Amino acid sequence: MASIRQQTAPTSNLSRFLEDARSLLEEDFVAKLKGHGVLMLHRAPGNLEATKFRTSRVESESLKAAIVIGLHNEVFVVAKKPDSSYESRISIGRSETTDVTIPYPGISKFHAYIELNPLENSFRLADGGSTNGTTLNSTPLERHAAVPLMSGNTIGLGPYVFSFMTANAFYMFLRRRSAPALQNDRLR
């Protein structure tokens, strides 16, 4: 059985998560994910090379050149690192010191953060003062002004667009995506 990789780097595609969604019950999948949810990349400029250098200024032409990546989506688990600060915040950025590290040009070292409210099981998204900005459902966010974040929302980090899904919603997404394969397995 494939395991869900708990790390800040993305998986190469959805295949590992699909295998777990096919073989595990929802509660087991969610427990194994060890995160509050995922950011799934679904639109990016043509160059996805990782960088540890300074943030690149991204012009609107780069956004127009975005491509849809299909089933080879990069998936980032939204989870706190054990030694990170701000207990109720999950930091997102290019730096390895952020909770969710996305090593792409155009993403700031500390780009954005997700605030957690465990009592209400809710999330809020804020731009962390990034160079290329953060959007929620295509609406630009003001720096450090947190807004409600719901499963299924799209998050723009510079030129990249991600879908945010809670762990349970990600499981259901994967089950729907794997339904044809499960049907074929039953027919054999």
Task: Walk me through the structure.
23% of the residues lie in helices and 28% in strands. The protein has helices spanning 15-23, 26-33, 60-64, 167-187; strands spanning 37-44, 67-68, 75-78, 89-93, 100-101, 112-117, 122-127, 134-136, 139-140, 147-149, 154-157, 160-166. Strand 11 and strand 12 (160-166) form a beta hairpin. It is globular and about 40 Å long. The strands form two sheets. Strands 1, 2, 3, 8, 9, 11 and 12 form a seven-stranded antiparallel sheet that branches. Strands 5-4-6-7-10 form a five-stranded mixed sheet, with no helix packed on it. The protein is built from four helices and twelve strands; from the N terminus they run H-H-E-H-E-E-E-E-E-E-E-E-E-E-E-H. With 188 residues, the chain is an alpha+beta fold. The protein starts with 14 loop residues before the first helix and ends with a helix.
Tally of helical runs? 4
Structural classification: alpha+beta
Mean pLDDT: 79
Largest sheet: 7 strands, antiparallel
Report the sheet-strand fraction. 25-35%
What is the C-alpha radius of gyration, as a whole number of Å? 16 Å
Stated plainly, the CATH topology of the domain at 38-164 is called Tumour Suppressor Smad4
- The shape is globular
Q: What's the CATH architecture of the domain at 38-164?
A: Sandwich
User: Order of helices and strands, N to C?
Assistant: HHEHEEEEEEEEEEEH
From the structure provided, what is the oligomeric state, counting identical versus distinct chains?
A: single chain
CATH class of the domain at 38-164: Mainly Beta
Number of strands: 12
**End-to-end distance, in Å?**
20 Å
**Low-confidence spans:** 1-12, 58-72, 184-188
The level of helicity is 10-25%
